[in-house]
Amino acid sequence: MPRYLSMIRVDEQNAPAEGPSPELMERMGELIEEMTKAGVMLDTAGLTPTSDGTRVTWAGGKISCTDGPFTESKEVIGGYALLQAKDKAEALEWTKRFLRVHEEYWTITCEVREVVEP
Among the four residues 10, 34, 75, 109, which has the most C-beta atoms within 10 Å? Predict the structure, then answer.
């Protein structure tokens, strides 16, 4: 079965300063448990803020490193989920369910892409 990477994009400037609510974490935990039992969820995690990150760039034959935060970025990858689904439609349905567990004040975009298998 194909694997899909769902990159969870958030707007760091508009995300709640206190982070996810306990109720959101509970709903998310229940959904992740359901997805794991269904054999769909292979791995998932949130990421630290961009202020803790570093971008490494290769350009013109040279490496450069830029420490965060990355002020030019509106949406950043805040987490990911690696899914195994029968097709893209199924991966999208699980992703939609993940988005729906969030409160209405969240603005989140998930980019879902199939992993190229060797």
Answer: 10
The answer to whether 80 and 7 are in contact (CB under 8 A) is yes
Do residues 2 and 79 touch, judged by C-beta distance below 8 A? no
Per residue in 35-59, pLDDT tens? Answer: 999 999 999 999 998 889 999 999 9
Measured CA to CA, the distance from residue 108 to residue 81 in angstroms comes to 14
Dist CA 102 CA 84 (whole Å) = 22
pTM of the model: 0.87
Q: How many residues does the chain have?
A: 118
Tell me the two tokens of residue 93: 């349905």
Cα–Cα distance for residue pair 16/36, rounded to 1 Å: 27
Geometric angle at alpha carbon 42, from 3 and 44, rounded to 5°: 110
